[in-house]
Amino acid sequence: AQSVTQLGSHVSVSEGALVLLRCNYSSSVPPYLFWYVQYPNQGLQLLLKYTSAATLVKGINGFEAEFKKSETSFHLTKPSAHMSDAAEYFCAVTLYNQGGKLIFGQGTELSVKP
Amino acid sequence: ETGVTQSPTHLIKTRGQQVTLRCSSQSGHNTVSWYQQALGQGPQFIFQYYREEENGRGNFPPRFSGLQFPNYSSELNVNALELDDSALYLCASSLDSRRTNTGELFFGEGSRLTVL
Q1: What DSSP state is assigned to residue A54?
Q2: Least Cα separation, residue A32 to chain B (angstroms)
Q3: What pLDDT does A94 receive?
Q4: What is the residue-wise DSSP string for B60-82?
């Protein structure tokens, strides 16, 4: 069975600082990995995905994530935080033949201080 | 291009009642998935419909049921509501086949259900 663990339910950074949101996964076979973002009172939006191609994945709004098999990690980073990045971020895992079932982590709330 | 729309946005029910939530998928998408997001938690997969047939189900009891219509819109029905059913219910559409899954889901803004 697959699972994801997001380390830190709340992360606070200053505007312009590095953003690092941590995600570790568990899967017996190569997984597909995703980061989704949820702004207040909205649904989730796909930030980026890893599907066994390049291990460094670039997404929207300047975010990127690196798949590290040896560490079973898929951490999300952004070099310089912006106030508009404040939101809830979810890491998710699935398999190619899982019929659409995404398994989400508990989420990390990102706060950006001016 | 029309996005995923859900209705109603908010509703309040009492224990034991039944509820129906509705979802219109994004134009061109043939697959609809439903997720339950309890307060402070990540979304949990309820089930998925592909071309009007259930195509995968999470760990939810049979009182959670669904339908998908020929135009690919969908309903989620919950019978015998319990207090723990209070949550945000998210619908997501995608363009997939029965056995493959891109994981690229397009979510609606959700229906927030409160059970008293």
Answers
A1: -
A2: 8
A3: 85
A4: --TTEEEEE-TTS-EEEEE-S--
